[in-house]
Amino acid sequence: MKAQSGDGWNTGATYEDFMGRWSRPLAREFVEWIDSAPGGHWLDVGTGTGALAEAVCTLSDPASVVACDPSEPFVTSARERLADLRVTFEVGGVGNLPVREDGYDFVVSGLALNFFPDPLLAVREQRGLTRPGGTVAACVWDYAEGMQFLRHFWDAAIAIEPSAVELDEGHRFPICGPQALESLFRTADLQEVRSAPVSIPTSFSGFDDFWRPLLGGTGPAPSFVSELSEEKRHALVDELTRRLPTQSDRTIELQARAWGVAGLQGR
Questions:
Q1: Rounded to an integer, what distance in angstroms lies between the CA atom of residue 143 and that of residue 145?
Q2: First to last CA, the chain
Q3: How far apart are alpha carbons 196 and 38 in whole angstroms?
């Protein structure tokens, strides 16, 4: 099996098919929850293919958005998807985040915090880039329980390949729950920390609509699939077919819950 460090974040187009179609509506819900005033300066950490930056531009009327990601292919994809003069895209990640002289009003990350090597150092770096009274916020999938299509996937994967438990994000990322997130933000010296569930429906037109994005090799679950033998892959398909709640019209209706967390830089 592929190592955890090889989650395969390398192709923007396949990420869009696998996760982008869900991260975009989630980003809109997350920005609504942040409840920001217009005219702010934003830093989007781990922008991926630009879902959160796009939501900020659509819903928050920002003065500027700096969107960065360590993956150059992702930054290229985001730049192609979001042509907005308020947005600047940069290749960069935690440890070398872009600095704004007067600080940012909002430093945010969408579906990235749990993948940072040291989340506490990452949040402290983000707090340091935020102006006094500004907001640091993050959103992560509830992998253990609330992100249903990935929960079904990993439960099926573990049934046919028990070692897959080590790759399951629900096992890997205990940080992805409200108490752990709030504790992290408070430990990073943020004030007035709050959290809340952020949910969206994930509807699949049929099994192929569920399965095809898992063949793209981008992200932990698709990377796992790419390493399977043909025999194991067929076994995984059979196990998923058995487990998924498929309707009489072949559609698969699931929910995806994430957790949002936010705190203020002290004045």
A1: 6
A2: 48
A3: 22
- Domains of the chain by residue range: 12-264
Q: What span, in angstroms and rounded, lies between the C-alpha atoms of 231 and 208?
A: 18
How far is the C-alpha of 28 from the C-alpha of 57, rounded, in Å? 10
Give burial (CB, 10 Å; 0-12/13-18/19+) of 115.
buried
Strands in 25-70 per DSSP E: 41-45, 64-69
**215, 207 contact by CB (below 8 A):** no
Distance in angstroms (rounded) separating the CA atoms of residues 216 and 16? 10
Per-residue pLDDT tens over the stretch 189-207 = 999 999 999 999 999 999 9
* CA neighbor of 88 nearest in space, from 103, 100, 96: 100
Task: Read off the tokens for 49.
Answer: 């293919």
User: In the CATH scheme, what is the code of domain 12-264?
Assistant: 3.40.50.150
Count other Cβ atoms within 10 Å, centred on residue 159.
Answer: 15
Sign of CA dihedral 62, 66, 70, 71: positive
pLDDT tens, position by position, 64-87: 999 999 989 889 989 999 999 999
* Beta-bridge partner residues of 257: 199
C-beta separation of 137 from 188 below 8 A: no
Task: Walk across the sheet containing 252-264 and list its strands.
Answer: 87-91, 64-69, 41-45, 104-110, 130-141, 252-264, 191-204
